[in-house]
Amino acid sequence: MTKVLYVHAKGGPPVGYALPRVAARSAVHLLALSDLPVHVAADAAGLCASVVARGDTDEHDLVELIASRAREVGADAVITLSEYAVVAVAEASRLLGLRGAGPAAALARDKRLMRAAWERQGIPQPCFRAIATAQQLRAAEAELSHPLLLKAAWSAGSTAHQIIEGTADVQDAWERSRAVMAESARLGYAELHVGGAGEDFIVEEIVTGCAEEWFDGSGWGDYVSVEGVVVDGVFRPVCLSGRMPTVAPFTERAGITPAAVGTGAQTRIVELARRAVEALGLENCGTHTEIKLGADGRMWVIETAARFGGAMTVPQIEQVFGLDLVAMFTDQLLGRPADWPSRALTPADADGAAGSLVVLAVDGAGAPWPRRHLWDSASVIRSAPVGAGSTLSVVRESSLPDGTPVPVYDPAAGANTMAGLCLLSADRPQTVIRDFTALVDALPRILPTDVAEGVRA
């Protein structure tokens, strides 16, 4: 029987969803680089042939730790779905002579390398500069057109984003982004393989989006993600996911599958994603490519990743299109046939729609809630104002325990200040937009007030 080493770290699809799907394709040995959610840990013992935590080992080099554990269990493949472990797993797989993202994996993780590769290929993207010091940021600020966005080169989940309107903002933005990256590392949301990754940044011009020219219906954000996979160096698109408008500065609030764009628009979006992915030279990996949509058909590639989309993107695809990406990718790494779609699937191919909503303590316009509240999943499910044909659930492992105070939204910390993650299924994408819009407005009424924390946020 084949054996897979599953490397768990924070981020990516919920491990409670992914691990059983890998276990259905192969014997699984679990290497946990971060703590498993409590309710998943008990299940893991039954699903896996072995479970080892990083703290149980004496290895300091992450690549060698992964490679050593893979040798011990006789792994035929090493898989991770976490952004923060992608590079280390790719390098360990190379050492072992196994399929993986390949030597270019870092180009799909370090935004400085990624953007430089695209610049060489003439791929449309915002003007940018790589930044490592406050002095370099000041120099770049003088060269680029405002407003600017400062972001960490190795970040995920919109953390450490700071908008710079002018020279007076530079120092505060620099200090705040560095502080957020340090805090993210403490929480386990940081690159696991590259030392000092929290010190690397880029600053870029903010391009203007125009969602209304692209989507069939209102309420959409001005960018999409192209979900796909690279098979032996060949990009295979799967589908498009859309978004609701972000919360300032650029924190994602909700993702919807499929994205309600027309066939012609989707074809052009997918072609740009293909160019972006192929420019990086990846070998075998999932891909998640974000593209900003502007007026008059303009597009800019924002970033790509050598892994599948995080949060509930992968479960949404399975629900809507019937594709188990985790199982298919496991088969691919093991050298088995995987029946990837011959083209990017469209809304016409979908059976309904699905979306995931990040619960943040802000209203629909991005203004902070006037009162503090406690997270309570039962209240959300019971009282959510969703349509009669829609089904809402709460993703436990991606949500705070019931009774926990909802964090005050911090624009710089992004998704680090989320309280919960909700999953919705509906008849079509526009229904998901409608239901999530109503839920965002209703949450301060649904959730109990946190009297211990005072009245105002």
What does the model show?
- The chain has 457 residues and is of the alpha+beta class.
- It has 4 domains: 3-98, Rossmann fold, CATH 3.40.50; 127-205, Dna Ligase, domain 1, CATH 3.30.1490.20; 209-351, ATP-grasp fold, B domain (D-amino Acid Aminotransferase, Chain A, domain 1, 2-Layer Sandwich); 352-457, Aldehyde Oxidoreductase, domain 3, CATH 3.90.1170.
- 31% of the residues lie in helices and 20% in strands.
- The chain contains 12 helices and 16 strands.
- It has helices at 15-23, 38-47, 62-73, 86-96, 111-121, 134-143, 170-187, 263-278, 313-321, 325-333, 377-383, 429-446; strands at 3-8, 27-32, 50-53, 77-79, 128-131, 148-152, 162-164, 201-205, 223-231, 234-243, 254-257, 285-293, 299-303, 353-359, 391-394, 420-426.
- An 8-stranded antiparallel β-sheet has the order 13-12-9-10-11-14-16-15, sandwiched between helices. The chain has a 4-stranded parallel β-sheet with strand order 3-2-1-4, sandwiched between helices. Strands 5-8-6-7 form a 4-stranded antiparallel β-sheet, with helices on both faces.
- The longest helix has 18 residues, at 170-187.
- The radius of gyration is 21 Å and the shape is globular.
- The mean pLDDT is 94.
Short description, anyone?
This protein has helices at 15-23, 38-47, 62-73, 86-96, 111-121, 134-143, 170-187, 263-278, 313-321, 325-333, 377-383, 429-446; strands at 3-8, 27-32, 50-53, 77-79, 128-131, 148-152, 162-164, 201-205, 223-231, 234-243, 254-257, 285-293, 299-303, 353-359, 391-394, 420-426.
